[in-house]
Design brief:
By secondary structure, this protein is an alpha/beta fold. The chain has eleven helices and 14 strands. The protein is globular and about 75 Å long.
Length: about 325
């Protein structure tokens, strides 16, 4: 059985169609990413899927339960981590988790055990008796995540879960999510960090202007633009303003600076690499590193979004 089934889901605000007749399924135990540019309809879709907004048309089933007709049964089976924290600032971290567990009908002993486990996992044990209003944004995020997981849900909806987290906390969260997913939890993730989706997700759906433009595994989406390859190179010394020089090299279609590296888009990486060695010798430079790269999920995402902007159909 699919964990999530979305059929003909549509949302109008007056004459504006925010979500336009979309269909997709999420398999049980799948890590599914939901991507799209700002204003594409991601948040509206999640609000309908979790029962916070009523669809203009269409159906969402959670573990077989229609979210509109059987909201209690459906909501008992998922946890939600909204982009903005939904914690109670005048309660302690411990009380927030126990209150969430009580709302889900978990026994006192079980919710205390789960609360202790989650606070420890997120390095919050020493702050468990402090009021949340004194927490940093990252700490609040951890409490919000813990509250969503207190009842060990079948499905976890995550809206930009690493927002506000430091690098260590972000890595720790991804480890926890992989572990949860490995134990059978279905995870529905929205994120603007495309490499995060690439590293975590079995499949991703891309929504553009309210329409579902693509649903597939990240590697399969990349292969749709396989002709697009690149050479990534860094120089010593790191000379600024090389874009025009690099774009003039044979087979280079564009040059973009990425931190201390340059990304050269090409259809012939071997020719570009040979040209680069000639170029650095003529300029008295050294190549610190050079790598040939296939298309990234970001490349595939941009290609799909641009295709839709030009009026292309769904993939």
């Amino acid at each position: 059985m699919n964990s999530i089934e979305v059929e003909d889901l549509t949302k109008y605000y007056g004459d504006f169609c925010a979500v336009d007749h979309i269909d997709f399924d999420v398999e049980s135990g799948e890590f599914f990413g939901f991507l799209g540019p700002n204003g594409a309809g991601k948040t509206t879709t999640i609000r309908m899927m979790t029962g916070l907004s009523t669809p203009s048309k269409g159906t969402v089933r959670i573990m077989g339960f229609d979210i509109s007709k059987d909201p209690i049964e459906a909501k008992e089976r998922f946890g939600v981590v909204p982009e903005a924290s939904n914690i109670y600032e005048d309660l302690t971290a411990w009380d927030n988790l126990n209150f969430a567990g009580e709302l889900y009908g978990i026994s006192r002993s079980e919710r205390r055990s789960r609360a202790a486990e989650l606070l420890d996992a997120f390095d919050l044990s020493e702050f468990k008796d402090k009021k949340v209003k004194g927490f940093s944004k990252g700490m609040r995020r951890k409490v919000t995540l813990s509250m969503a997981m207190i009842h060990s849900p079948d499905i976890l909806f995550l809206d930009e879960p690493t927002s506000g987290l430091d690098l260590h906390s972000s890595i720790k969260l991804k480890e926890i999510l992989r572990d949860l997913n490995g134990r059978g939890t279905t995870i529905f993730l929205t994120t603007h960090i495309l490499e995060e989706a690439n590293a975590l997700c079995d499949r991703v759906g891309i929504i553009v202007r309210g329409r579902l433009a693509a649903v597939d595994a990240p590697e399969k989406l990349k292969r749709t633009i396989q002709a697009s390859q690149s050479v990534e190179v860094s120089f010593d010394p790191a000379v600024p303003g090389l874009a025009f020089d690099l774009e003039d090299l044979p087979a280079v279609t564009s040059a973009e600076k990425k931190g201390d590296k340059w990304k050269l888009l090409t259809h012939d990486p071997s020719l570009v690499a040979a040209s680069l060695f000639e170029y650095v010798n003529s300029r008295g430079l050294k190549i610190v590193s050079i790598n040939t790269l296939g298309p990234s999920l970001e490349d595939a995402f941009l290609a799909i979004v641009n295709d839709q902007a030009r009026g292309g159909g769904s993939r």
